[in-house]
Amino acid sequence: MGEGGAGACVACIDACPSRPIEHERAESFDVVRFPFLRLPGRVPARTAALAGVFAAVVLALARPVFAEADDAAPVTLVSDVHVFVLQRDGSLDEHDDSTLRANDANGIDAIAQRYVWFDKNLEKVDLLAAETIDRDGVAHPVGPDGIRDVQEPRSAGAPTFQDGLLRTVVFPGVEAGSSTRIVFRKTRTKRVNAGYFGYYVEPSREPVERQRLIFDVPADMPLHADARGYVALPPVTENGRTRYAFDYRHGPYDRIESGAVGYPTYGDRLVVSTLPDYAAFAARYRDAAVDPGADDPAVVQLARALTADAADPRDKARILYDWVQANVRYVALFLGETAAAPHRVTDILRNRYGDCKDHVALFGALLAAVGIRSEPVLINLGSVYTLPSVPGYGGGAINHAITWLPDLGLYADTTTGGIAFGYLPPIVMDRPALLVDTGVLSRTPATQPRRRVARLEIDAAQPGAARFHALTEDDGWTAELERTLFRRAPPERIRQLANERVRQSGLRGRAQIATSDRRVTQGPFDATMTGTLDHLVWPDGTTAVPALSSLTGGIATQVEGWLTEPARTQPWVCIGGAFDETGQIALPADVAVTDLPADTVVHDRFVDFTSHYVFDPAARVVQITRRMNAAFGRQVCAPDDFTALHASLERIERDTQAQIVVRAKPR
Hints:
By secondary structure, this protein is α+β, with helices and mostly antiparallel strands. The protein has three domains: 7-46 and 75-253, Immunoglobulin-like, CATH 2.60.40.3140; 286-443, Roll (C8orf32 fold), CATH 3.10.620; 450-664, Sandwich (Jelly Rolls). It has eleven helices and 37 strands. The strands form eight sheets. Strands 3, 4, 6, 7, 10, 12, 14, 15 and 16 form a nine-stranded mixed sheet that branches. Strand 15 (236-238) and strand 16 (241-250) form a beta hairpin. Helix 4 (297-306) crosses helix 7, helix 6 crosses helix 7 (356-369) and helix 10 (555-562) runs antiparallel to helix 11 (639-656). The longest helix is centred in the C-terminal third of the chain and has 18 residues, at 639-656. The termini are far apart.
């Protein structure tokens, strides 16, 4: 796979080195090439979005590329011809000729530095041409000092993942209207097993004037394709070979709406493979993952020592899950970016790091040592909720591995810090899941419990700053996420979090946070904030006091997130939960309450909401109660669902923004 092209591409081949590589498996494995964004002035990197899952849910959602669909795009793919020539013995030649144009100054950085990824142990890259083409059509070649190889950055500190290099090309004299052209040939230097070739590509959402992908394969190795937006040309067979070709053109893309699912869920993409179905794909992974040393005495002794005091299989599995999650550093490479087979379990245990498939292998070996069955699961990690009909690795296809525990009826992902055993990060929920041992497509759960209780007390009755006390209890999948945030934060960061949450609630003041036990990894998590608020009630004139039932993170925050778009044309992520909030505000004796919000009741297909306001004139206390239960039954909603829900959300948002109007009494 090369750098050029109108999208995120991944080529997959089945590789078998002639001798074992240190810390690598000698059996056959799949090697996949993921492309990288063209980033200005530095080597590119792909965000794993695993350490902070709640943030990852947002980050994993596709972002807008252009402000509006009719705006001029900063970059255009002028041409790209990408040819793959596969031999029956697994030899592969790849040739790519691609030209990108900077339409304006905003596109310069995107084309001025480009990359070709290759495996230094398997492949050789020849740069045939690299040049800047100015607005007058004059070509300016890249000099030798503009070409260098650099280590793929995400493998830093993980020696067993350092096969990947980036051939980096820095182009001279790039300005608005310039184009950069790169032509390379990539050749397999070691033979690989015959029988498998795969390629995945999705648009990088820059306009495409012309792209052609050509696959030249032996005629007795038919190529299966799932093409959406890519136009298949009639295959041509001669001299024992078949050429498959796909053309792609596209003008400016529609803006990706905030909170929408990943573009490949519904947009253009191409997957080709010599494997006919997912059962064959699973078998290939299963065969490559066989590890005769998985029951090594060191593994067995560790598992039994950790679980010595646990009698219940679920407790044993939880203990082992917690240990792997806490003690095996996750190397954030998507499945298929390196050899698609785990390292040896003994090596993973010794090194204490690994990617997703390594986590699955070690966790599975530990489970087996205490008599608990498990099975690897291949899945898409991120905001793409479907799989192509043709199996393959890629950003919108399979790119992650988790674990299925059939006797417990649970999926588990040890790579994700902040998710307790029994729950999953949202970025692997509600999507097809390929069970490796059986070759069957299953599905991860569509929903999981989430409950948040908030109690807020504000005492503004006395002169000066108002004192407040806020308690939140998270239960369900978000509890360990919140607990992990505080467990990992140094004291100074915790102090910052307290004041940030006050500001995010639209208030000014100072706060401190105390929490329940951060050492545990299960059960609800409490956080208590105390502090003072400035100018909640002014001593003269009229004050609109926010009718708060919670600080940030509650009903108001949830609804605000859903309403980031006024209308939707794309499927969107809808994660529900139950919220129970009560606020009490003690008011000064020298103010009169002139307006109290009205109660609100909202009931529709997805959301139930109630609010209730009471003012006790004797105690000078306003009590605000809000409850919301959002249940979608799935994690992906249609645009029509948003249309039906929109009016209800606006009513809830209006209530959460309600104010208690008070007026200072004449002195």
